[in-house]
Amino acid sequence: MICKLALLLMVIFAFPIVFYSNSWVIYINESNLFRHNPRDTVYLSVADGYVVIRVWSSRFLNIDSFWLLIGDNRFPMKIQFNLTDYSVWFGYVSYNGSGFKYFFEVKLSNGSIITLLNDRFQQYFVFDGFIKYMQVSWVGSRVGYQIFPDRFYNGDPSNDDYGLIYDSLHYDNTTNAKPVKSKWNDPPLDLLMHCCHQYYGGDLRGVIEKLDYLKELGVGLIYLNPIFLSGSVHGYDTYDHFRIHPMFGTLDDVKKLLEEAHKRDIKVIFDFVPGHVGLGFWAFQDVYVNGPNSRYWDWFTIYRYPFTPGDGRDYKCWEGIGTLPQLNVLNPEVKKYLFNAVMYWFEIGFDGVRIDTPLYLPENYRLEFFHELRDTIKSRFPEAYIVGEIWFQAPDWVNNGPFDSLMNYALGMGILLDYAQGKLNDVGFNHVSGRLADYFAKYSVSVAGMGFNNIGTHDTDRTLTMLGGGGLWDTPSPESILRLKMLSTLQYTMPGVPVIFQGDERGYTGRAGPRGPDEQRYPIQWDRLNTDVYNHYRYLGWIKNNLKPLHTSIIRVFDTSGSLLVFTRGYNDEVLVVANNDRISVAYELPPGEWSILYVSSGEEVVIRDRKLIIPPLTAIILVLQKQYSDISTTTEPEWLSSTPVVSTPWFTESYQHGISTSTESPVSTNYLEERSEEQVVKSTGNLLVIFIVITATVVVIVVTQIILRNLNVRV
């Protein structure tokens, strides 16, 4: 009898779910109903001074409440968003540097209680208090601005000819082309010239002179395209990583820029290219002259010697482009040189670095290389901001990876731009809400709060062009302007730092090559301004600077359908953003709370009636809870905010009637994530699932027990 009982208990104990009357114990490592791993930053990270803990729960479970338990304290958890098969819950506690043990308690709609534990040997989950890579605290509250120096502003005409002197065409033996110095308003030449060898004269003093302009936009972060000695306009063919290109100014100009920017609380990050150099790079020139006898021969991969500079068949180069010899970063001397250069510029006073094309380093070495670079930087400058140029989602590079953020093309162009173009109105993953949920589920909360959220850059069409605004010399349509304003409102309300490319705030258009001469890099014409677009960006900057929930790392994406996108920001959902990418108005029922309208991107008059919000076509609306509205309304507004109207003139014609769609598919939603008993699944489905699990478990226990006992010749 004792043997029977022991075997029965062994079988029951081996099953993932332990039953105690109306309560269950689930060990998370034995069940697919829940997912959590405290060693994975996707599930546990420190953001905004909190330990943020996330759990994935199966959407088949009908959950009423979810609790995080630490000692005698219970902390409520909320759904952050829904994925296809799972819901993502989050809870948070203050971080004081100490660790703690914790577990979870889940209440189902039928009253059952699930105690969620780690495993049978270490039942509690453990956070040891150690965070390998802390969140950079200053990033999430700022607005970013990308500057392409030669095309921004000419503050010192005396240095304009240096671009011609150092241009790589002088080293390139495969062409007879010559660089060109153009007047500020000269039209762009062909793709090769305008991209690389047509100089306009912008410089660092020009940036210094425009710092007040940037501050008025709310800018708190400048991203400078390369400023080191190089052979082109773009600067990605470096000659010397320790020297400023004379066409941009001097080291003193850099120091002055940093000093003046920091006076205005503007951070500055520099662009750094670790994988390739230019034809005039001092070590490459030594190899060209001395061949295998050069001490720098192993800094490169030479296929044949003597070689022809500019001929990519003679040596390894980036993308086969002969003017960009590739460095051998496996050589310890090369790595030391690059690391020393990066640290030199941090010592000068830069606040961060953007790493160009990291994926072009050797695949089996690049993560190791950049982890070591990160450790080197962070050991001296823990608040340094490190951004990697990767165009797709790459969690391994940021979740305890070498970078604080990627250039978030995957968010800006892959989701938000698609939505602003009128796409992503399907269901599930093909709806904008599904895409956003999937995107943020892959990254830790800490990483989300440091997102470098760009859309258009020097490498793409201008944002307005991608929204139908036309090319460089075209007049954007009213519809494209509305789409731009909706898109930028979403960009500015995402976690992280919104980064705009110079001129986007002025309503500029321009197509990138190879369809044209890289029009997006055309110089800013300071007498040309779309006032409506400019005022819109200024107002967004003011909102981003002053609305505290937008500084946090938390976004909650609501389940919606059709043209609606709805999400909240802040740990207590203090900010609500509702967008409509259709050409007709739609209605949305607001979640509980006293909401006030803070901003309407289209400038249309919008009112709330019976908790219904009517969203005009191609519009994003920012709403805030009444308390938050009171807080921001007492913030001192800049003079221009009261003197310059930010309301747009309605552009709708008879073709775009302003009114509520009469379609039965018009998305009127009351699906609030916090009301879980009504929105996860139908109750009966959840109850049937519980019954099914209990019956199945019982049958399995009986069958397995009988098999074991029979094998032992024990008669039941």
From TrEMBL:
Recorded GO MF terms: hydrolase activity, acting on glycosyl bonds
Q: What are its GO biological-process terms?
A: carbohydrate metabolic process
Keyword Methyltransferase in annotation: no
What residue ranges are annotated as transmembrane?
A: 688-709
Q: What InterPro entries does this protein map onto?
A: GH, GH13_cat_dom, O16G_dom_2
Q: Which residues form the Glycosyl hydrolase family 13 catalytic domain?
A: 146-544
Task: Name the keywords, alphabetized.
Answer: Glycosidase, Hydrolase, Membrane, Transmembrane, Transmembrane helix
Reply yes or no: does the keyword Transmembrane helix apply.
yes
The name under which this protein is listed is Glycoside hydrolase family 13 protein
Question: What is the source species?
Answer: Staphylothermus marinus
